[in-house]
Amino acid sequence: MTDIIHDSGGASPPTQQALSPHSSTSDEDDDVPLGKIFGDMPATPSRQQRKTAPSLSDEHKSVLLTVFQPEISTGKLLTMQEVRAKMRDSHVLRIYVVQPDFVKRVADFVHYNTNATRQIQLTTFPDLDPDDSVASFSNNSGLRKVWSPHDVAVIEAKFKDLKKVPPKGKILTKFRQDPVLSHILERKGQNRCYEKVKTLLRRQ
Predict the structure, then answer these.
(1) Which end of the chain has fewer CB atoms at under 10 Å, N or C?
(2) Residue range 98-110, pLDDT digits in tens
(3) Whole-prediction pTM value?
């Protein structure tokens, strides 16, 4: 890059007088990222990222089953605003709050599972008031014993490289440290998660 040399005794160019005290006249500043000048700025999704929301994966659905478990298990329907608010509280889901299509997919998934609960409530407790049915169903149902296919798919993917069953402590440590498996652990408990891994690995 060619250096620009000014006469030592000449007056400064008008453009230099207009520069603030914190400005630099070095051409090298053109190559300095703005983040270096203004400090680290949080990354925000681009317009394209906001438009192209991803489909719900098994990992997304496993997290959703935990985040929205109180509503799904009791058949409580949520508004779109309530769905978005709960997503914002989840460290896994909050990055998708700015994507309307993704939020809509989440709401549809939650509503589908909630409606399934409500349908079973009506079948199991036909003579009860809907509000009483919700309370009775959530306390007495055996749905917690059923493994979601999304949970099973996630566990299989996370442990697929293992050839034999590791010690229980190592399995539970992996569940606690993984951001998705930790949701399954919260919902299913230590013993059921350990037994599920054992069963899946022995089938291989």
Answers:
(1) N
(2) 999 999 999 999 9
(3) 0.64
